[in-house]
Write a structure and sequence with these properties.
alpha/beta, 13 strands, 28% strand
Length: 251
């Protein structure tokens, strides 16, 4: 049965205020920009987002952030968004920073039904011991701090317990998708897109190229359609550069 919907707006129409969103992409590579823009055109607010990063000021999740539509973010890299830093330090945004590999595994665990797992990442730091500022007060004092996490020793080494992530919706971008939701991601877009897709109870995929079932070699499918509820054909994606650098040249 076809999972194709006609427009990005139709695909995200039931995302309500307070929804939890797992959002794919790595930097500005492979982010579901059309789906994010469609949410921005709606009225959903107080969103909780799980994503490697939060876009930049004028693109991707940065659009929702700038409009104060995001209440909480769990991410591992936020260095290229000035508005993100401003809202966080002003006490307008709750932020849970987590190691990148831990974030990836929390999403994967959520998608595979594993409620929690132990990892050595963060042992002996505030990641495990608690006290990281999740939200500031306007005066700069800490309003909400991270709680301590359980630890255990295996084979003589200490590990910290991390809980899986599940979301109400997942938004992902794929290079190819068929009408049954089987997806193929392009290069770096493989980072976080399949994991986010697995963690969502309702996964929505925007695809650059929409094909019929059987047109994708099963051996080349990166994410099977069982994880995907909706597919929208958005066409070629603009390739944005997160941070442009050029050489100084030679004299």
């Amino acid at each position: 049965m076809s999972k194709v919907v006609n427009t990005a707006a139709e695909a995200v129409a039931d995302i309500a205020s307070g929804s939890r969103l797992a959002v794919g992409g790595f930097g500005l590579c492979g982010i579901p920009d059309a789906l994010i823009a469609a949410i921005a055109d709606g009225d959903a607010t107080d969103l909780e987002v799980f994503s490697n990063n939060c876009g930049v000021d004028d693109y991707g999740l940065g659009i929702l952030l700038r409009a104060h539509r995001i209440a909480r973010v769990t991410a591992s890299y936020v260095g290229e968004n000035k508005e993100f830093a401003r809202q966080y330090l002003a006490g307008e945004l709750e932020v849970e920073l987590t190691p990148q590999g831990t974030l990836a595994e929390r999403l994967r665990a959520g998608g595979t039904g594993i409620p929690a797992f132990y990892t050595p990442a963060g042992v002996g730091t505030p990641i495990a011991e608690g006290g990281l500022p999740w939200r500031y007060n306007p005066d700069g004092s800490i309003a909400v701090a991270s709680p301590p996490k359980a630890t255990a020793v295996f084979g003589g080494r200490t590990y910290v317990l991390e809980e899986a992530i599940t979301a109400d919706f997942a938004l992902v971008h794929a290079d190819y998708g068929d009408t049954e939701g089987n997806l193929v991601f392009n290069k770096t877009a493989m980072n976080f897109n399949p994991l986010a897709a697995m963690a969502g109870r309702i996964t929505i995929a925007q695809v650059e190229n929409l094909v019929e079932p059987g047109d994708i070699d099963p051996a080349h499918v990166h994410l099977p359609g069982v994880f995907v509820a909706r597919v929208v054909h958005t066409g070629p994606q603009e390739k944005r550069i997160e941070k442009r650098t050029v050489s100084g040249g030679t004299k």
